[in-house]
# Entry
Amino acid sequence: MAELILKDGKERSLFRRHPWLFESSVQRLEGRARPGDTVTIHAADGRELARGAYSPSSQIRCRVWTFDPAETVDDAFFKRRVAAAVSRRRALPELADQQGLRLIHAESDGLPGVIADQYGDTVVVQLTSAGADKWRKALVGALVQATGCARVYERSDSEVRGLEGLEPVTGWAYGSAPEGEISILENGVRLGVDYAGGHKTGFYLDQRDNRALLGRLAAGKSVLNCFCYTGGFSLQALGGGAASVLSIDSSGPALARARANLALNPELPAERAEWLEADVFQALREFRKEGRSFDLIVLDPPKFAPSAAHANRAARAYKDINLLGFRLLKPGGLLMTYSCSGGIGLELFQKIVAGAALDAGRNARIVQRLAGAADHPVALDFPEGEYLKGLLCQAD
Ligand code: SAH
# Structure
């Protein structure tokens, strides 16, 4: 096994069990390692500290698999890690019976570069690092064993693979396509999942609890759901007794799926739903001109800032939509606003929202702080895992 020798002092993050080693921390590689190969990690004085996956084309030169330098990284290792992640979820009552469930949340489950989402008896896996890519077979086998699922689909087509020098990989990794479409029941609502063509692994499981919360808030309200994707928030609002739900997304296919999802739930009042294919920034400006207003507005935009480098531009975009959101809120209305940008921290996001309320001339307060669901845990050693943050604000 090749040895990765760190620069003096650069072993400190390992003692905090942070799993990333940047190129700038590495002194040299002794021996040969191909992308994704396991290397032992040594402090400058030679102490062996950990084992990780080598990735020569990424700035994150090595992702730690284990902080125990004596632990072997082999098929059995991945079986243990996957089984542990699955049983942690089974141990949480709110997750135990979910049909749609994130089984593996990458670094926060001790498996950098590995995402696995379960939809009924189908698991969709996404491998985003050279190390994860190398262990595809072991990971898929471990997922099948831990869940007893019927099939595993690989959706490794995320752009970040490019940074690791990896080509996209998609297709059935185990089993074959089911007859008919895949759907899950979430908080009483049936939702189809386009695992092959949808975003990420097909669905945004992280917002499950927040969608349920919207359902509890929606009775009698006029709801505006911005960036609705396949209608998860919209359908919960309808189920919660909303008077009307206007949903906006710029993606035609996402809206088609949203309408189809509504049709999967014949008990929901379809006549109260309206779908609009439009750019949210433009649509909200139009609404403003038309003097429209809403009781409850959801803003769940895509990642405007994938990393801290994009934070400035992203901050302007967040400010812009939140400003428009506050302007369209009826007196006493609620704004449910999110950022899923790793590059925008909670504190900054709150400042942006505060600035937006101020500029909109609205007095508002935070009544609840919102985050991802429990199957998207944040390892205490890996604060970067906390990408999704939300605020529920009540305006005067
Ligand atoms: N709230 C959704 C997830 C939102 S994902 C859920 O609970 O499932 C972000 C969505 O924003 C995507 O569907 C994408 O198509 C849409 N989108 C991105 N930019 C947009 C824009 N400028 N205007 C409208 N929709 C946009």
The first helix runs from residue 12 to 15. The domain at 75-182 is CATH 3.30.750.80 (Transcription Regulator spoIIAA). Residues 204, 207, 227-230, 232-233, 248-251, 254, 279-281, 300-302 surround S-adenosyl-L-homocysteine (CB under 6 Å). The chain has three domains: 3-66, 75-182, 204-395.
